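Let's do one together. I've listed all components of the complex below, 716 residues spread over four lines.
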Amino acid sequence: MAKGPTVYDVAQRAGVSIATVSFTFRQPTKVRESTRELVKAAARELGYIPSANARGLAGGRTGALGVLSLDYRPAMPESDGASGSPSVDPNVDFRLFPLYIDEVQRGIEEECWRRGYAMTVAAAGSSNEAVLFDIAGRVDGLAIFSGSIGDADLRRLAERLPVVLLTGSRHDDDLSRVSVDNADGMRDLTEHLISHGLRDLQFVGSIEAADRMERFDAFRATLRAANLPVPREPLAATVAYRAMAPYLRAMTADLIARDALPEAFVCVSDEVALVVMDSLRDAGIDVPGRVAVTGFDGLVAGRLVTPRLTTVRQPMQAMGALVVQTLIERIERPNEPTVTQRLPVQLVLHESCGCPPN
Amino acid sequence: MAKGPTVYDVAQRAGVSIATVSFTFRQPTKVRESTRELVKAAARELGYIPSANARGLAGGRTGALGVLSLDYRPAMPESDGASGSPSVDPNVDFRLFPLYIDEVQRGIEEECWRRGYAMTVAAAGSSNEAVLFDIAGRVDGLAIFSGSIGDADLRRLAERLPVVLLTGSRHDDDLSRVSVDNADGMRDLTEHLISHGLRDLQFVGSIEAADRMERFDAFRATLRAANLPVPREPLAATVAYRAMAPYLRAMTADLIARDALPEAFVCVSDEVALVVMDSLRDAGIDVPGRVAVTGFDGLVAGRLVTPRLTTVRQPMQAMGALVVQTLIERIERPNEPTVTQRLPVQLVLHESCGCPPN
DNA sequence: ATGAAAGCGCTAACAA
DNA sequence: TTGTTAGCGCTTTCAT
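Okay, and this is what the predicted structure of the assembly comes out as:
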């Protein structure tokens, strides 16, 4: 283990120059087959593993892509329905089901390796500035879930290396983005609910992030076009992520107590929808009989609950892959202009909106 | 973005030598405060981000740790209980709930950043040999989920850099391991079931991996000690991971049809237990009334089902942290002998074993 | 306290 | 086809 054989060792053992060793691995065609075999044999015998550092230094690139992900710690405290008590140990803070970010990250990971890049990850939550710049210094490009770092840091990073943002649609900066057709999805979803004959629809969840705002806007626009009452703002519009679940439960209970339930809860995300549905069930409210509930994202978890969650599915895996492709393109052609790419979404109808089981 | 400022640029701008720039960041005390500020200012103005490659090359280390994880693709095809039909789109292959590996990986990630290391990941499933050696070349140490790569590759890697295996307890090699007290946990669990008056216990699941074998052995030993019938081998003992869920469903149905259900299914893992419970529910079999079911691992998902799953919780987060600590120790002191560390597990009693709700 | 200079292991011209 | 050689950006003695 001590030192690790280098090109020099391999070259010596094979009786060739270090250039030949390098060529053998990087441009095999430039080396006569017999020589190549010789070198490979020597490398194998020595247990030679090329240093990515040296390679990167010489080549001016690291061969790795980085991901800055959010630190979604405790996911939604679901109850199991058997009791009203919280079903999650407070000392266990792991997400209850795979989130949006997990699926996208998987897409990134696969595309990375497919394209010959390594993937280095950092959860922005746990990251101080040092960590941030450490990872920036060791990758050729950075995929950033928007919201994971501050604007100032973001700008500094983007000046130094290719950066692609996941979601978010602000236009006051000049960054590449991969996003989805939030408005289309929400319009389709809302129209579908209207087609069920529902007229009193409430939007639920924080809309601080730009893409969530798009959803809310599309929701309103669709209601307006249908001459239906248009809520001025969402329920729980500004509640912080960590506080969302308890807030939603209290809110639901309150609406029930006041007999003020709408005909449908149009939730900004599946995570929100799942909590809302669970609260309703705890209270004995029939979904979708008494009130319909919809989500947005298309998490796997939405298909495991009863009734299954009607939602808008984002092509998360594809988004991850597209981020990587975009990053690599910018690495190879740094001077191209930035791009915002939107992927289509898909309306997924299940029972929570009132559709019959299929 | 183009080139990125280097120490030389910063040095020039600050009117000092490159050594001073380096010292400013690595050994600040060696530099007069005024100089330090000067350098830092220059660095900030230039947007200087140190190259991890160059740093690594010079320092003989990369500052990153790697993780080789398994490529658990389609998790368990659970049904939602509303219908017998599979509730998962075949074109969506993301795990249904966070697995053992996710929680351990989170522990690794956190400890990595805490200790100032970056974390690079590779899913072994998608990895050919090239990927394997690529990652090996870019990290100072490797955490490997056992089973993710072949023995030969494992040996080669271990010769070249510090390696710690997660779980698995073979003693025919000389590798460091982080594992848990599988036997203790299974003994406690089995004794608990016996204390419920259960006498006809069946073990379910593959025991190919060493730690799973330990669980089965402890299960048998405990039954033997209690003078109860000891199954010679588990049900589904050799079924492959991907084929497990359908196999279990068929198996359960068959046992029911033959009226051959045991009094308890002691499952090798929570994943197996969840499928078994779900199949039983689909068939209208009462758990734990007619048959008790237990798991092993302590996945979050086990607390979300009804009845909640009695299981043995592994300290997954702590395991991840310990792996990193062990790795770092070996990096700093390469000549220390390898170690196998076992962490204690905890019996978690819920309703699936027959305990009353708490 | 700061600078000069020698590498770290590899790649890629350029030579031969 | 293969070898020679000049860096890549940084750390780290060793001088000053």
